[in-house]
Amino acid sequence: MKTLTSPPTPKKKRKSSSNDENIYEIPYEGKILVCDRVTRILGATKSNVSLLRHYGDLGTDAAEKNRDEKSNLGKAVHALIEQHLTGKQPDPDLPCSSSSAIRRFSHWLDWYEKHKITVAPGYRCAEHTVFSVYGLVAGTLDLHLLMAQVETIYDTKTGKYMKRDFAQQVAIYALMEREGRARATGDTAALEMFRKFWELLEPPRIDWPKMGVLHIPAEALTEWQINPDEAVEYAMDFARRTKSFRFDQTMRPFRRVWPETEEKYLRGC
What we know:
β4 (126-132) and β5 (137-147) form a beta hairpin. The chain has helices at 38-44, 49-58, 60-86, 99-114, 164-185, 188-200, 228-248, and strands at 23-28, 31-37, 117-119, 126-132, 137-147, 150-157, 210-215, 222-226, 257-259. The protein is globular, with a radius of gyration of 19 Å. The chain is α+β, with helices and mostly antiparallel strands. Strands 1, 2, 3, 4, 5, 6, 7, 8 and 9 form a nine-stranded mixed sheet that branches. It has a single domain, classed as Lambda Exonuclease, Chain A (Alpha-Beta Complex).
């Protein structure tokens, strides 16, 4: 059986004082780190031709309504899975009782019963916030479980199609989870490796967990696996995309770290 270290469960992200959904504000060592959301960087550094075509076909209002409905459905399924694993009650505003959400959740229950699922000790098993001190990026890891005693990190997707960005997202979350573990255990050699990865683009050398995407459309649940070699390529590509994203934002810089005692921060300073 694989032995897992058990560092403290990290704090939940702090709600952004700027109400910007594209960033996380992470309390860390008496400071606040302003971290870009992983999905924001992935979305901002890819071609939007298909998205523009979609908006052109439906019109802006219809396309945004369709986007919001899909987003709320995904959040509802995530909330039902989190409730199943942790007992946390879903947001009453989410459509958790809709037939679409219930159908997808039933697929999850079938999959859960089929596998020997337990919780990874010392970690939030669902909706676990992970971040990088060096890359200043963050995200919410959907599932951190043990499957037949094998550590497994999953992201769940409820849309009709699978995308390359989904696999890349999981790889980055797994990488940041390993950085968080190194911080918690004081592994200075590993932390130096993470610093060189983000700052110098050196390939990460870590013990990758089992990783994958649980694709849960209306029809059935499908499990997509990501191997370590793929994860390294995804990580390197994401680090380059992050640098490109930050370069494009140099005209609108803002403070990424400030003392935790300050109540506000100023963009452009």
